[in-house]
From TrEMBL, chains A, B, C:
NCBIfam families xrefs: lipid_A_lpxD (TIGR01853), PRK00892.1 (NF002060)
UniProt-listed InterPro entries: Hexapep (IPR001451), Hexapep_transf_CS (IPR018357), LpxD (IPR007691), Trimer_LpxA-like_sf (IPR011004), UDP_GlcNAc_AcTrfase_non-rep (IPR020573)
Superkingdom of source: Bacteria
UniProt xrefs under SUPFAM superfamilies: Trimeric LpxA-like enzymes (SSF51161)
GO biological process: lipid A biosynthetic process
UniProt keyword annotation of Coiled coil present: no
A GO molecular-function annotation: UDP-3-O-[(3R)-3-hydroxyacyl]-glucosamine N-acyltransferase activity
Name of the protein in question: UDP-3-O-(3-hydroxymyristoyl)glucosamine N-acyltransferase
UDP-3-O-[3-hydroxymyristoyl] glucosamine N-acyltransferase non-repeat region domain location: 33-100
GO cellular component terms attached to this protein's record: membrane
Gene3D superfamilies named among the record's database cross-references: Hexapeptide repeat proteins, MurE/MurF, N-terminal domain
Keyword Lipid metabolism: yes
């Protein structure tokens, strides 16, 4: 299916040799072939740029021989159809991304910009007229603030960031290259309920949210500010839609959180951990570096570095799977003997 | 309790005979009785229109004899109190809806409309002045765009649609009669994390969201656009609040998803399937037509058409329930013998 | 870490004696010490106000001797370091909140206000110019409506409320001192799917949402209006981010719902109940006063007052924990004998 040019602007055609240069890939094949679009590898047609990042060599069904060019690791390049120009790199999917930017550009919001910008909004920033920029907020070079987004007073946003439509950011310092998708809520008051003489009361929250460089935050995800200290999201951590990050959580680098992940107050997650969809972590729990948490797990105690846990309450995944299988066996046996 | 006229405008009184005509129902009883409101069947008072759609005949507690009129299937009409005019139809609840429209009208947003509309916004469409309409977006007859909603460039929206307050729609083609409630996020980038030379990177997303006729999408629900192809929601599928539909999901017709349903990437769901609250489905899994998934289930493999599954990991519901009961029995027994 | 004055305005320094007076606390120590900030008790430095609300007396690591003053219950006051002025009250954390308001003020949105207000918006209310106020909506004294928030026609909002950025409220009556955080959706149509001659149809919803005094509603949380009657949230109930409250739910006073709580249609929850994160309740279920529901529980039947339940399906928590432990033991044993 061709890319819909109502949403993505065509910048091509671009010769494969030029894409090889842009993505710093080694070209094996015809560099004069023209690229006009992108497509999944199995269904790529004439003019399409694709990638193959499988661990085994591509088979006949994996790469359509009509494709114009395919990013691939050097060791698998020879397995591509002869008709497809190979672009060899150690990171085929990533390199494809770099090249694709020269072929297609998302049309973005195409907002008419405000005629005058506050002094602390960089001249190259794009701010939708309907966005709210609070007093003293600073917006860096080339950052885009979407329609009806709300940036609170004093918020600092770095360079090359994208703040989506209807998103809100307050009490927060945001690095460079950060993407905050539509409807995300950054810096709201955390949930601190305490008793008082009249009943339940909210504990006021005096902290901030710190979001480091190249973090991505999904649509309608919420990240609360710290109670006194900070909630921190480390470099290149990627967070899916509809996640909840409570106050004083500290997340390291390159962590991935799938949709509906729920991180309770004061949890720490070390670098490179991965949470499946709907995984939840109870407050003050520590998750070691590179730990993996299965979808739908409920974690109530520390997970050591590198381990994979699942279930509610979460336990090492093999143990959980053995329990599930054993229980199923008891029932099957009981059924038969009856 | 009478309907609050600050939120719903009274259009009545309307004679029962007129409502019978509008809803194509067979009237048994007094057609001159005037209807002024709607109410639950058990508590309906004078002037109230109600419906009974139970499988057994209504008992004395089911229908208040003060009610003005009641939609009911023909076989149960005689069981209504004599004082209540019966309106017989095969779909009592649905027919009640048709008639109720002649009695009450939600006041809606009552936005002051923009003085001039872009050429591709139909003259009968209502667009709140604070809504953002991107370049080239088209809005059909009688469609209402709520306050502070954001419609991205090139988006196509059909006739008789409602886009709620603060909702955002981008990279999407929307059919007729579609309702997208407040804060829903249609067409955001899907969650595609990949490795690169510097750490985690987002895979760019070049696809679209296709929403077919009469689909309803709940508040703050997120539907991501496809990576290269489309995310598709089939005709009359109804999605509750706070659901997540990832990239490249394909959902058939008349599917119902309760709140917090989470559908991972490239899942396919056939016509008429039903998901309970918080049901989750792992990526690439196929759900057969008419399958039912219990609340809180976590589905990691294919569910055949027409089956009902539950639990985490999901299994046929009877098996899951037997396991739950058996385990409970072991503990009770152990407790007694101790 | 000092509080960031880009987000919180310093109102101090304030002498401890003055804070004792404001919070109606008994001062034990030097009333002339000046307070300039707030901090966690263990890390509080010179000028910082803190609180200790533990059940046992504070140990040496609990309270930093550099802190200026500490709210504490009278029985634990003597265990504070001599260098820290004690402020004795029965509710240390709550009293700290009262005093902290004299030391620091959140900068809020600092919106430029509309020049003229509709007649039913109180002169002391602050309404962001980009907020939408529907026809006939009333806004009480000192209530703040954030940027790009949407208040539907006829909505009544009391005194001293805060409506966050990009939040929307419709078909609702809101009491005094209510906080609705950014992106919350109050009063959307509930999820009522019914069959009709053409397939699935939405049942129209004619009810309201009633939110009583001092309720707090988290970011991106959704509360649907009733079908014919009302959805009701009782006084001082506190709801975290990303919760779902369906139509016709009735929640009592001082109830706490942690993040991702999901309350299905027509559920009733009595006063003082507490739901952990991601707890879900099936429709029409009744939860007794003071009941506690563990995180990730799925409740399918009534929980008596005062009991604590967990698991899916939920059962008394001790039973659930015994089942979990017993199952784990079977597997460990089986493993060893193999």
């Amino acid at each position: 299916m061709p890319i819909d040019d109502r949403f993505y602007e065509s910048l091509g055609p671009v010769p494969v040799a030029e894409l090889a240069r842009l993505a710093e890939a080694e070209l094996r094949g015809d560099g004069a072939v023209l690229v006009t679009g992108v497509a999944p590898t199995a269904s790529a047609g004439p003019g399409d740029l694709c990638y193959f990042d499988g661990k085994r060599p591509p088979g006949p069904a994996d790469v359509n021989p009509q494709a114009a060019a395919c990013f691939v690791t050097p060791e698998h390049a020879d397995a591509l159809p002869d008709s497809v120009s190979a672009l060899c790199t150690p990171f085929p999917r990533y390199s494809h991304t770099l090249a694709a930017r020269a072929v297609l550009r998302p049309r973005g919001w195409q907002v008419a910009e405000s005629e005058s910008k506050p002094s602390n909004v960089h001249q190259t920033a794009q701010v939708a007229p309907s966005a709210f920029i609070g007093a003293g907020a600073a917006i860096g070079d080339r950052t885009v603030i979407g329609p009806n987004a709300v940036i609170g007073p004093g918020v600092q946003i770095g360079r090359d960031c994208e703040i989506g439509a209807n998103a809100s950011v307050q009490c927060a310092l945001i690095g460079n290259g950060v993407k905050i998708y539509s409807g995300a809520r950054i810096g709201e008051s955390g949930f601190g309920v305490m008793g008082g003489p009249y009943g339940a009361e909210d504990a006021p929250q005096y902290g901030r949210v710190i979001i480091q460089d190249y973090v991505t935050i999904g649509a309608n995800t919420c990240i609360d500010r710290g109670a006194f200290d900070d909630t921190i999201i480390g470099e290149r951590t990627k967070i899916d839609n509809l996640c909840q990050i409570a106050h004083n959580v500290v997340i390291g680098r390159n962590v991935a959180l799938a949709s509906f992940a729920g991180i309770s107050g004061s949890v720490t997650i070390e670098d490179g951990a991965m949470l499946g969809g709907r995984a939840g972590i109870a407050d003050h729990v520590h998750i070691g570096a590179g730990a993996q948490i299965a979808a739908a797990a409920g974690v109530f105690r520390e997970i050591p570095a590198g381990e994979t846990w699942g279930g509610v309450p979460a336990r090492p995944i093999r143990q959980w799977m053995r329990e599930v299988a054993w229980l199923q066996k008891q029932i099957s046996g009981e059924k038969k003997t009856k």
